[in-house]
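so my prof wants the structure for this chain in the tokens format not the other one, which i didnt know existed until like an hour ago. anyway here's the sequence
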Amino acid sequence: MDVLSPDLVWIENRCYRVNPTTDDSSEYQSDPCYIEPDFDSEEEVQMDFAIEKTKEGSFRTSFHVPSCFHGSIIGQKGATRKRLEMDTKCLIQVPSRGSKQPIVVTAQREEDAIAARKKIEDIVFSSRRRQDITHFPSLPCCQDSVVESFAKFKNSILSGSPRQD
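here's what i got, hopefully its the right format
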């Protein structure tokens, strides 16, 4: 293909350039030892939390989420919580803001409770990433050797001469 005059295709009065493709599938061969996990399979899901069976036969899990994230789970006018409850067929109880109570997820099937909890954890994780920074680490540098080295560095910068160490 000539780079200066590529093949053109006209679709609905618009002109598109046809870029050459190379089929180097050997370059992107996947590792035969690596197997992509199948999340839709019926295999047992690895979980690091407890789900208890209630007297009524439903499944329940409770976990702590900082109260500053309760609003993200509830959403505007409860829309996010309603959507989660509809998607996972669960009842999600979020305590009032400022409360130290855990979030409680109740479902008829264990898989639904697991799915709801994981979705809530995803919401908390994404909300946490959007949070402003609240702490600044400060290290004390009051040792004599540090103070002397800083004074030398400051003097070399102010004098305009390169630092010699």
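also thought this was worth mentioning. The beta strands are 8-11, 14-17, 52-53, 59-63, 90-93, 103-107.
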